[in-house]
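Marked as duplicate of an earlier ticket. Keeping the data here for the record.
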Amino acid sequence: QVQLEESGGGSVQAGGSLTLSCVVSGDTARYFSMGWFRQAPGKEREVVASIDSDGTTRYTDSVKGRFTISKKDNAQKSSYLQMNSLIPQDTAMYYCAAGEGFTVVAPNFEYNYWGQGTQVTVSS
């Protein structure tokens, strides 16, 4: 059974930085793609960034140039979201997600595994 556990959330002032971590446990497929989502109160969940099995990254427009997603494919897979120049609009619960597949843009790709979330709060 695959499980994801996030860490690294917290409270920062605008302009600050945080790094979120996501550790994957369990038996994962050879091709494993991951993503970070966020959901603010009263808003729908949105994808923030994703990274394919080959390292290809994608970002939502609002975080381009400020956030960086990365991953490690050691014996234990993990993903990281480096968040710089944080603004109050980045305040949300952040979730790590993963799915078995070469790329998140494949028609049949699904995020099958989700973490519990970690809160990020940015004050002005």
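See parent ticket for discussion. The radius of gyration is 14 Å.
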